[in-house]
Write a structure and sequence with these properties.
mainly alpha; 7 helices; 3-stranded antiparallel sheet
């Protein structure tokens, strides 16, 4: 029994992921608008804040692998929209933490429901076991990439949808 993948197979996986990545970027502009006034690029901010409860902008930016100024603009827009709120960090009053408002939780629920419905349509020809296997493999790939980055000294904070999140929290 062969273990591992060949160079050709690895390249096919890479090219397939590259294509999906490019298509997802293109889909951002044509995907169904799920929440008026919320730019689709800000959805990950909402997802991470929801998973964290409260978080500093710098931690949010690190988790999203984004520039602090970009995340700060997204947070400001979401605060103005009433979806997020800023408050003083209880451990350091000079800093602020971000959390979801009740309106933000409701909006996030609509966004998640809308995204799930959209992806249900995209995956309408898949069956349950194939989907479960795909999710398992996708998480394994993400875990391998995370481990590779960490081995090279990169910091990769856990995201709310990180399959190793619970394990990492137990280690801390």
């Amino acid at each position: 029994m062969r273990v591992g993948v060949s160079k050709d197979e690895a390249n096919e996986v890479f090219l397939g992921l590259l294509r999906v990545q490019k298509l997802l970027v293109a889909a951002k502009h044509s995907a169904p608008r799920l929440e008026d006034g919320v730019d689709v690029t800000a959805y990950p901010v909402l997802f991470v804040v929801a998973g964290a409860g409260t978080v500093r902008i710098s931690e949010l930016a690190a988790t999203l692998h984004n520039d602090v100024s970009t995340v700060s603009r997204q947070v400001s827009s979401l605060v103005t929209s009433g979806l997020l709120e800023k408050s003083a960090d209880p451990s350091d009053g000079r800093a602020s933490v971000i959390s979801l408002t009740d309106t933000g939780r409701e909006a996030l629920g609509r966004i998640q429901d809308g995204r799930a419905a959209w992806f249900q349509g995209l995956l309408s020809h898949w069956d349950g076991p194939a989907t479960a296997e795909f999710v398992t493999r996708l998480r394994e790939l993400a875990d391998a990439l995370d481990a590779n980055l960490r081995a090279r000294g990169a910091t990769t904070p856990p995201m709310p949808f990180d399959s190793t999140r619970d394990q990492k929290q137990k280690e801390d």
